[in-house]
UniProtKB/TrEMBL annotation:
GO terms for cellular component: cytosol. This is Molybdenum cofactor biosynthesis protein B. May be involved in the biosynthesis of molybdopterin. SUPFAM superfamilies: Molybdenum cofactor biosynthesis proteins.
Length: 173
């Protein structure tokens, strides 16, 4: 019998100039998926697509020992207001290069060459894992189902990001 999954404390930030908690389908999907997987949603917010507002919320969560994982959705495209990668990349201690690459590979099966416009990214900051996802609910579903569900499961072998943020595992930075 395998060991029990260790639930993680996850915060979700939607970056949008037009959504609120009632109309935020992507944030709601991520919250639903993470809770269905046995994790705990510790905070969920909306921030306008502004580098400093995004950075302020994410910095607060990175500094909070009660947040182990941060999922953002939105602001990863190429329009003038899309600024999530610029806001978040400077906060990361280490980047997870393979996350964006693997996401685009999975996404290509669904949206073809349009996936090259995704600037999603992942990284580690102060023993907190951060993943920045596109704003489309389909993209969030692809990221969660294809990558994050396994990588945030402490039982996934041969390695996972959950074990980096679980203090009792002794591997966190």
């Amino acid at each position: 019998m395998s060991e029990a999954m260790i639930p993680l404390k996850i915060a979700v930030l939607t970056i949008s100039d037009t959504r609120d908690l009632d109309t935020d389908r992507s944030g709601a999907l991520l919250a639903e998926r993470l809770e269905a997987a046995g994790h705990r949603l510790v905070d969920r917010r909306i921030a306008i697509d502004d580098v400093y507002r995004i950075r302020a919320v994410v910095s607060e969560w990175i500094a909070d020992p009660g947040v182990q994982v941060i999922l953002t959705t939105g602001g990863t495209g190429f329009t003038g207001r899309d600024s999530t990668p610029e806001a978040i990349s400077v906060l990361l201690d280490k980047r997870i290069e393979g996350f964006g690459e693997q996401f685009r590979q999975l996404s290509f099966q669904e949206i073809g060459s349009s996936t090259i416009q995704s600037r999603c990214l992942g990284g580690l900051a102060n023993a907190t894992v951060v993943f920045c996802l596109p704003g489309a609910s389909g993209a969030c579903r692809t990221a969660w189902d294809g990558l994050l569900a396994e990588q945030l499961d402490s039982r996934h072998e041969p390695c996972n990001f959950a074990n980096l943020v679980i203090p009792e595992r002794g591997q966190h930075a």
